[in-house]
Amino acid sequence: EERVVIVGAGMAGVQTAVALREQGWRGAISVLGAEPHQPYDRPPLSKAVLLGKAEGSAFEVDFASLGIELELGREVTGLRADEHLLETGTGPVPYDVLVIATGAEPLALPGSEDVPGVHLLRTLDDAERLRPVLARQHDVVAVGAGWIGAEFATAAREAGCRVTVVEAAELPLAGAMPPEVAVHMSRWYADSGARLLTGARVAAVEPGAVLLADGTRLTADAVVVGIGARPATGWLAGSGIALAADHSVVTDDRLRTSLPDVYAVGDCASFPSARYGERLLVHHWDNALQGPRTVAANIVHGPAESPVYDPVPYFWSEQFGRFVQYAGHHAAADELLWRGDPDSAAWTVCWLRAGVLVALLAVGRPRDLAQGRKLIERGAALDRAKAADASVPLKSA
Ligand code: FAD
């Protein structure tokens, strides 16, 4: 009997296992996960789980009835591809087909790793450690005004904490959004009662305080570091598998790696996008849902019968009482088109390339997102004047 072994029991790993069964795989399936917990979903960790509104976020998957073998608390430490073997602390694991789905690891703030009261926010254990901090309504400092920093600040404000967010760039989400968009999002911090310090560099973190390069000392009963994440691929060093400079596993447009019988999917893998003409490393939930379907199809039916992977990326964020959604992928050179007033509660920004919609950000306008996502998929051209009128639905020219 052929065995698919999946390394990583997060969204991408679990979805691969489920998709394999859905698409008719009859062989064995094993999922090996380093964390001891029943596999769970991450987005609630910075939202309901952090606030104690939900106990956990375990996936509702009946692994036993699907014939999926789960080995939790089992970390994979190496790959010997010539022998089709994985290494673990408790002995080798053979595979016929391997799927790498080890996700990403949050970056630590150098020098702060061992300081008490400094937290990351990636795992259920992280969220459980932070929950009592919020419940005690402490003074908290978030380092990094990205998606995680904004969502943490939102939850901490809702819990009644005093919140300061320290960001090295001049604006929040500096890597993801152009300044003319981010400037409007930066105001959400103050509206919620959080303090946002931009252009601010952390010089040192001490127990109880964060010191900035300009001499400012911020009281911090807890510090949450949200300065980015990178693919958890250290265990593949020396395996012969191709890794990119950003540490992602390099895959082709079917999510096959450089080694035979080895696929990679989710936050750990980058893929070539014909749609956008560049290699994409996507750290969002939808990619960990869609990618596994491509992997499963290629394993079950073979490449000739299976689609390539070229999604329109999608993600959402819930921050400062707003539902923020983004679809597509834009470059700095793309043309920006506003739809609605960015000082109001709901607005949308479109990115056009040669008149064609390539990406859109919708704040409190889920219908724009749904319509825009379809237009992006079709490569539709927009009539600028009509698209700028927020009172009529988004349509192709
Ligand atoms: P992971 O979820 O990271 O799963 C990988 C698993 O592999 C982990 O459990 C890890 O322990 C395990 N593993 C790693 N190395 C090994 C090893 N060597 N051996 C065995 N197991 C290993 N996305 C959105 O679109 N919207 C959101 O609102 C949103 N909110 C988020 C909030 C938080 C707090 C976080 C952390 C992420 C959020 N995301 C959100 C991103 C989304 O959760 C991720 O894109 C998604 O979890 C990726 O799934 P994955 O399976 O690739 O990786």
TrEMBL record:
Keywords: FAD, Flavoprotein, Oxidoreductase. The keyword Flavoprotein applies. Residues 3-288 form the FAD/NAD(P)-binding domain. Residues 314-397 form the Reductase C-terminal domain. Its cofactor is FAD. It comes from the Bacteria. InterPro entries: FAD-oxidoreductase/Apoptosis, FAD/NAD-bd_sf, FAD/NAD-binding_dom, FAD/NAD-linked_Rdtase_dimer_sf, Reductase_C. This is NADPH-dependent 2,4-dienoyl-CoA reductase/sulfur reductase-like enzyme.
